[in-house]
Fold:
Amino acid sequence: MKRLSSAVETDLSKPSSTTEGNYDLITFLERYRTSFNGLTLIFSLFFTITLSAQQPQKKYVLVIHGGAGTILKSQMTPEKEKGYTDALNEALEKGSAILNQGGSALDAVEASVRILEDNPLFNAGKGAVFTNEGKNELDASIMNGKTLAAGAIAGVTTIKNPISTARAVMEKSPHVMMTGRGAEQFAKEQGQEIMDPSYFYTEDRWKGLQRAKQDDAETIIVDSITKQSLLKQPENKDYKYGTVGAVALDQHGNLAAATSTGGMTNKKFGRIGDSPIIGAGTYANNKTVAISGTGWGEYFIRLVMAKTISDMMEFGKMKLKPAADEMIMKRLPALGGDGGLIAVDKDGNIAMPFCTEGMYRGYVKEGGKKVVLIYK
Amino acid sequence: MKRLSSAVETDLSKPSSTTEGNYDLITFLERYRTSFNGLTLIFSLFFTITLSAQQPQKKYVLVIHGGAGTILKSQMTPEKEKGYTDALNEALEKGSAILNQGGSALDAVEASVRILEDNPLFNAGKGAVFTNEGKNELDASIMNGKTLAAGAIAGVTTIKNPISTARAVMEKSPHVMMTGRGAEQFAKEQGQEIMDPSYFYTEDRWKGLQRAKQDDAETIIVDSITKQSLLKQPENKDYKYGTVGAVALDQHGNLAAATSTGGMTNKKFGRIGDSPIIGAGTYANNKTVAISGTGWGEYFIRLVMAKTISDMMEFGKMKLKPAADEMIMKRLPALGGDGGLIAVDKDGNIAMPFCTEGMYRGYVKEGGKKVVLIYK
Structure:
């Protein structure tokens, strides 16, 4: 473990309310039960009864992201910033209302991601970027940390909310992953909302494709491994990448993760990134953590990003923050990639590391205010 | 770690030759160097010089599989058994010749898998099973343990050797994964061998599709998680699943893994299994292990099978055998899946666990005979 980050873990879930204080005292008493024995047991019981009488708000956490990239305040208009902030707040509101009412983490992450999919500002659903052929090809995946059930779709062009179809794959089929025309047929049979491909047209993304085509024609890059000239890598990753995602811990202690994307501007060859890959862009396990990634997908796949963080926690007994930092701040850039992720662990600790200039992100906890952030 | 298997590791790479004996003595001396200090150093140097003078065969290992399933000796004809055994031997011969000449693990696993892809007995390449629509949709992936570079293709219908196209994705594109028509366009541009889809027709597989369609029409299954009726799960997994794969350690200490498949008989909806998913069906990392899986793909994806074993070794400091056994003999069946895998670690230890009746498999090491096995 010597090679791992020594960064101090900032527990963003640090309790501040009175009820949380009582809970801490019980934890303290529980810890020393073996020393104090019977007397402690009585005290414990007393405090448990007190706690029940107060009917405290049970713990829940929702974290969302709208993509990582070179997001600089200097290049942002107040209107645009407000658009992003409003959308992130709306997604947090929708998901946390479900959690607040005792709903499932799965329902919460799906609801939050649908809000972001329907918003043209984000590269997912309505705001998806264009492929080289001028199409919008969408990918999404979802995972249930309680059962390790998972669902994913890739390369679909007519599904309004890919995250809901991914959930249908998980719950209404024996499969985990479906692609292309077949996935669309499944979505139709399942009564998912199907749109004409023109629904996904936005002027901004169309302009983005024209810019990308121009850039791609002008640049040849050399691969660091093979030293060979390669198909063009994105020069300006800001308008080329983008993802949305949500992770949640519900009041029942269940974790879930969801990720949705329009992929990469000007992508060719049916390219698939990390978003629909379980273990890379999305992973949830009640034993450890729920994670949704955003960034240069190829590197997230090669690092098997999300599952590796879970395994650092399960097998390496690491805490979330140092594990996530090790992957995003060290191993990802060391390999040549960039991006970020959001995570919530089984105890409600959150992490939102990114090695880009910014990441659209936000979180909310039981009894707390919604927090929305964009820059470093 | 208490929950993990306590099975004793059988090191199939146990040295037996004289040169290997010398090597062990050096290892012994190295271990006690701190105690013996200067004297030991002299002894070490002496033996190292002796070793160099003998020019020993450097270590290499190749392990292959041709799929796991209900393979019973009672249901096998001598002709069929010979067919499988001959093919596995041919694949071992081809790959190990490369390793013996000092070639790369990557070249070896690609060469071995191509032999199995070209043989109609295995569900990959020429012997691929049919989809519900009567097509053959192929998936494959490959990973370089030295660089963590990876390539994968999914849902292609015209590529003779998908494993070679997966390698082209890895080496000649900035991407890791390509699908469908786009992947085929890339293959064409890269000069990969393209066949008419009729090349993949075999009578056995066509009959298998008719059997599967009949079975699928007769059975409704209930999901253990959601208690809902689901799309049919395969009743007879033997003729529905199948994969080929290879893993190798070369003389330079580099690991590589490759997997190729025709997927699942009667599959619908563009279903993708674990074979083209990096971290699930295929993974290689010089720090730990190279793995290729075969079995019920959905469970391999949910468990992120291959990467989890690597992480048990990296973060849990486990040895290969107990880590692989924990996943294949415990966690996989506990979740409701089955299958097997082949693995070789950075020290040349191999593991070939499976929780099915049989798995077509074989291995060969420097200076050793080819070993081919089918049953338990």
